[in-house]
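Sequence only, no structure available. Ideas?
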Amino acid sequence: MKSPGNGKMTMSYEDCVAMREILSLIGDKWSVMVIVNLSEAAVRFSDLKRAIEGISQRVLTHTLRGLERDGLVQRTVHPTKPPSVDYALTTLGRTLIEPVSTLALWAHHHRPEIERARESFARASE
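Reply:
I predicted one. Tokens follow.
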């Protein structure tokens, strides 16, 4: 990604592909919620499930595995009886907190405008 002297951002095809891959990774329905819930400290699976309203055990497991596969979440099994498992953001995963927070603020601020635009578009399309 380059920013020439005119202040405009330019992106190569490879930059766009990389961004699309990352956005699809964190842009699914549940990944951002998992990242936000892990932003303060390690959390046990059952606590994550309780904190994320509407997520099933299967979907939470799948989401955590994907984030773990991509190096964003670390799974730790503690040798207790019964074994307990917690999840935490990795160093790489922690680097997502700021951009995710910025995007969340942008979305919160602009959501009414987007909803008005959608309503206007729907009325014009009728």
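The longest strand covers residues 73-78.
Hope that gets you unstuck.
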